[in-house]
Each structure stands twice: as structure tokens, then as C-alpha cells.
Design brief:
Thioredoxin-like_sf, two-stranded antiparallel sheet, DUF899_thioredox, 6 helices
Length: about 190
């Protein structure tokens, strides 16, 4: 196939993806939110409630991170770090992981991360949100919450995996001959995901 023909075919696929994204937004808008309780998390400064993580916003994005043991979660966080200031102009944001606050703080400092982190180690939060596997391992993803008065609801969520839309590196690799190839430790499923 000639390059120009291939380019036209890829442009058509991208239009189809854009159409599917619009359908996803419409489906999401019609979904009934899931009411959740006001979970308590731990930070280096003490405990904090889910309701406090919204700050001045009605919406809150919580990333379900698997912690320092997961190279994929670290890759995602490294990439996210640069856009954090833009995200928090629209919604509250926090990364939740099973690591203890001291471990989170030390690792975040070593990576230069600027976003807030909370520990769900002493909470059923990850399990209740569906981010613990049947075998008891942590799973990566993101949940979006909305606060209206004293009520908190989860309005959407999705898992993270290699090739997803939340780590831009995958999309750059997709454009290379051979795709991801043998980039360090790549498999169809991260070994840290159980």
C-alpha cells in the first residue's frame, strides 16, 4: 500500500475513533451515578476524607495506582506529571495507591512528581471501586467522582493497561515500525497486575 493511501485509511480510522468517543460521552451522560461513602485515606500529614480531596471543585479524578512495585504505573505518573497543573484547573485530582504515605512521599520526590497522593492501605476503597482482582492483586485505573452537597457519586471509571489512552507513550510507539517492540519489560499485561 502506498504511503498516501495508508495515510487516508488511518485518517478514516481516526474519524471512526472520534465518533466512538462521542458515543461513549453520550452513554456516560445517560448513566445513573453510583453513590459512594466518604472514604478515609492516609497522607504524610494525617488522614483525609474523600470529600476533602475535591478542593474547590465539584469533580474529582482519582487514579488507582498500584504503587512503587509497578513500572507501568510509574511510567503513567511520569507522563501525567507535566499536565497536572492543567487538570486541576478543571477538577480535583489525587493518586491513590496501597503504599504507605512515607513510601509514597519518598518515591514521588525521587521522580519529581507534583501531584497529591493518598494511601488506601487501611481502606476498602480500591476493592469497593473494583480495582482489586479476584486473586487479591491491585489493578490500575481511574475513577471520576462528583460532589453535590454531602453526596458523593462515582460518575465514570476505566482501567489502565498498555496501549490505553492515558499514557501518551503508547501512541508514539504505535507510529513506529514494529510498534512498542521490545521496549523494556513490555508484555500484553504488566507482570505487576494480578
Amino acid at each position: 500500500m502506498k504511503y498516501a493511501d495508508m495515510n487516508g485509511k488511518l485518517a478514516d480510522y481516526r474519524r471512526q475513533i472520534a465518533d466512538i468517543r462521542e458515543k461513549m460521552r453520550e452513554t456516560l451522560a445517560a448513566a445513573e451515578p453510583q453513590e459512594v461513602r466518604d472514604y478515609t485515606f492516609n497522607t504524610p500529614d494525617g488522614s483525609v476524607r474523600l470529600s476533602e480531596l475535591f478542593g474547590e471543585h465539584e469533580d474529582l479524578i482519582v487514579v488507582h495506582n498500584m504503587g512503587v512495585a509497578c513500572s507501568y504505573c510509574t511510567l503513567w505518573a511520569d507522563g501525567y506529571n507535566g499536565i497536572h497543573q492543567h487538570v486541576v484547573s478543571r477538577a480535583g485530582f489525587v493518586v491513590s495507591s496501597p503504599d504507605r504515605p512515607a513510601v509514597q512521599k519518598k518515591f514521588a520526590e525521587s521522580r519529581g512528581w507534583t501531584f497529591p497522593m493518598v494511601s488506601h492501605a487501611e481502606s476498602s476503597f480500591a476493592a469497593d471501586m473494583g480495582y482489586v482482582s479476584a486473586k487479591g492483586g491491585w489493578m490500575p485505573g481511574v475513577s471520576v467522582f462528583r460532589r453535590e452537597g454531602d453526596t458523593i457519586t462515582r460518575v465514570s471509571d476505566t482501567g489502565f493497561s498498555p496501549g490505553d489512552d492515558f499514557c501518551t507513550l503508547w501512541h508514539f510507539f504505535d507510529m513506529l515500525p514494529g510498534g512498542v517492540g521490545h521496549w523494556p519489560g513490555v508484555s500484553s499485561k504488566p507482570s505487576c497486575c494480578h
